[in-house]
Design goal:
By secondary structure, the protein is an alpha+beta fold. It is 41% helix and 10% strand. The protein has a 5-stranded mixed beta sheet with strand order 9-8-7-10-11, with helices on both faces. It has a 3-stranded antiparallel beta sheet with strand order 3-4-12, with helices on both faces. Strand 8 and strand 9 form a beta hairpin. The radius of gyration is 44 Å and the shape is flat. The protein starts with 10 loop residues before the first strand and ends with a helix.
Length: 604
């Protein structure tokens, strides 16, 4: 892309006026029309065109004292004439204006009524460009009745209110202002302020398995099923509702799906409206309050009506009319001056009156197969380092290397160094740095090659080059943090080895602890099995054998024989109950082998 491909368009974004040249721009900023629109912008009002401003000046309005400093007397005064300019024509609304949740209507410009738009319009009707305030007044007359007293009209249709939170559900059906049906449910799903956290864990697959969490999940499903069954039970009445207000979380809105499918509720006939006011805990009293607020038609004033229309025009961002053609403001030139640094991203001008057409872009020069840059880029993308080095050294016979430019700008203003820093082989990066590639250059995203490095090895290559050539480039501009010398690498390697040795030592110690713990466990398990066998054998002894065994123990206790206090073999710890032990040097053994093993072990 060349500098001639991006045109420069000068525009006043306050007045929405396009300049012909620099002189025209300076002249426009000195006009009272521009200053007046600046005052309107400070008050969040839309601008006016130059002909309208001239008409206001000729009509004698006090808006001519615009030069000089700001003061309280110089503020823009919203007179009825000025308001009529913004709201022209004054008797028709636009699709953008009626997107507000509240409407203020007037049948005769004397009486004003205020109500919510959901009472008069369905969702599919709000974006109809043919809709005017006449249609809204007709809808207001249809859904309300005018009482004998001179009070505002009141809603006479059928409406429903659904409120559904984590553990509360409330629904009510109204005919006019009278409640016809109502129902509330409550389930325990909060879990002491941990329900949200546990619910998120349920969705990620690591659901809590406690009793309380299971109860919470059960109650959530039960509350949803109860609400869904209620919509089906009230299906006949709900299908006749003029509007259905709901306040339901996004993940629970499928509670109405079966009702819509059963009664064939389409987008054109969809009467569901999200409640546009703040609500509290779902209760029968809260349903009544919400219904009263959303279906009430209250009186309003002319001042509130004008302020409401201005506020909605500001929110809808209605575009101002295009400026008229004049000899003092000629059209922009066909070949405007180009913008420098065209590789950087430019902010597009906000204009609705001028459309800039650009010719179809041709294939960039570096993507032609007969150009050396095409083969260099392909070698980097396919990780063919040998071919890459041959092209750079001029050893490749099938490629003409005369057009090689290391600083050439490619797609997104990248250079070869940007591509090499993202390649899998770090040797591309090292060769380009040694050949003089500039690491300071930024691409269209304002990122340097170092910031696009694919791995730590690539970043270390930049740092090593910085250590070898400290004064070649501005490394602060290249975003390279610090040099990496061989001494620093040796220190890092030594620290890494020490850390690995410590980890290996800890692993070995941990392994020894696990082996010792396993050995103790097996010994305890074997001792428990022996004790269980002794208990089982004692249960099978006769009364006479038990008496003899007790007599032997009493005799051994009286003689004061040394040995294990638990009545077991000194060497293998086998129980000596109902056995005649072998005694040697005051110790007891269960067999001759234990005596010999104990003697050999003591000698060694």
């Amino acid at each position: 892309m060349t500098e001639q491909d991006i045109p420069e368009i000068r525009e006043c974004r306050t007045c929405r006026y396009i300049f012909a040249d620099r002189a025209d721009q300076i002249l426009h900023y000195k006009l009272d029309w521009h200053r007046h629109n600046l005052r309107l912008a400070l008050k969040n009002l839309p601008p006016i065109i130059e002909s309208t401003f001239n008409d206001l000046c000729e009509g004698g309005d006090d808006i001519s004292s615009l030069s000089g400093s700001e003061s309280d007397e110089d503020q823009v005064v919203l007179t009825e004439e000025l308001i009529s300019v913004y709201l022209e024509p004054a008797t028709e609304l636009t699709c953008a204006v009626i997107r507000s949740p509240q409407l203020i209507l007037t049948p005769d410009h004397v009486t004003f009524y205020k109500c919510y738009s959901s009472l008069l319009l369905r969702r599919c009707q709000r974006n109809d460009p043919r809709l005017t305030d006449t249609h809204l007044l007709t809808a207001l007359t249809t859904v309300t009745r005018q009482p004998d007293t001179p009070s505002p009209p009141c809603f006479r249709g059928r409406a429903a209110v659904f409120l559904y939170t984590a553990q509360h559900f409330a629904a009510a059906l109204f005919q006019g202002s009278t409640m016809v049906l109502h129902k509330t449910y409550h389930r325990y799903t909060v879990r002491a302020k941990q329900g949200t956290v546990q619910g998120l864990r349920d969705g990620k697959g690591n659901a809590p398995k406690s009793y309380g969490a299971s109860l919470r999940r059960y109650n959530q499903v039960a509350l949803f099923n109860d609400a869904e069954a209620l919509t089906l039970d009230w299906g006949e009445e709900l299908s006749k509702c003029h509007v259905i207000y709901y306040r339901v979380a996004q993940y629970n809105r499928s509670v109405f799906d079966k009702f819509k499918a059963k009664y064939h509720i389409t987008e054109e006939g969809d009467t569901f409206v999200s409640i546009p006011v703040m609500t509290y805990r779902p209760t029968l009293k809260e349903c009544t309050r919400v219904h009263r607020i959303l279906t009430t038609v209250s009186p309003s004033t002319r001042e509130e009506f004008d302020a409401w229309r201005l506020e909605n025009m500001r929110k809808s961002r209605v575009p101002a009319p295009s400026p008229p053609s004049s000899t003092r403001h000629p059209a922009p030139a066909e070949n405007p001056r180009s913008i420098p640094n065209s590789h950087l991203k430019q902010r597009s001008p906000r204009t609705e009156t001028t459309t800039v057409t650009t010719p179809l872009q041709e294939i960039p020069w570096y993507k032609h197969e007969d150009h050396v840059m095409y083969h260099v880029i392909k070698a980097i993308e396919t990780s063919e380092f040998d071919r890459f080095s041959d092209i750079l050294d001029g050893r490749c016979n099938d490629v003409d290397t005369s057009g090689l430019v290391l600083a050439a700008r490619l797609d997104h203003a990248d250079t070869l160094l940007h591509l090499a820093s993202q390649a899998s082989d770090v040797r591309f990066l090292e060769m380009l740095l040694e050949r003089g590639a500039n690491p300071e250059v930024m691409n269209s995203s304002r990122r340097t090659p170092y910031e696009l490095a694919a791995s730590k090895d690539h970043r270390n290559s930049f740092r090593r080059f910085m250590a070898r050539n400290p004064d070649q480039w501005d490394y602060k501009l290249a975003k390279i943090p610090s040099p990496l010398t061989p001494k620093m690498e040796a220190e890092q390697e030594a620290k890494k080895q020490v850390k690995k040795k410590q980890q290996r030592t800890k692993a070995q110690a941990r392994q020894k602890e696990l082996k010792a713990a396993e050995k103790d466990r097996l010994a305890k398990e074997q001792l428990r099995l022996i004790e269980d066998a002794q208990v089982l054998r004692c249960k099978t002894l006769t009364a006479r054998e038990k008496c003899l065994l007790a007599a032997e123990r009493r005799l051994a206790s009286e003689q004061g024989l040394r040995g294990s206090t638990s009545g077991s073999c000194t060497f293998c710890k086998t129980g000596l109950d109902s056995l005649v032990p072998f005694e040697k040097e005051g110790l007891k053994f269960c067999s001759v082998n234990c005596v010999n093993d104990h003697r050999r072990g003591r000698k060694t």
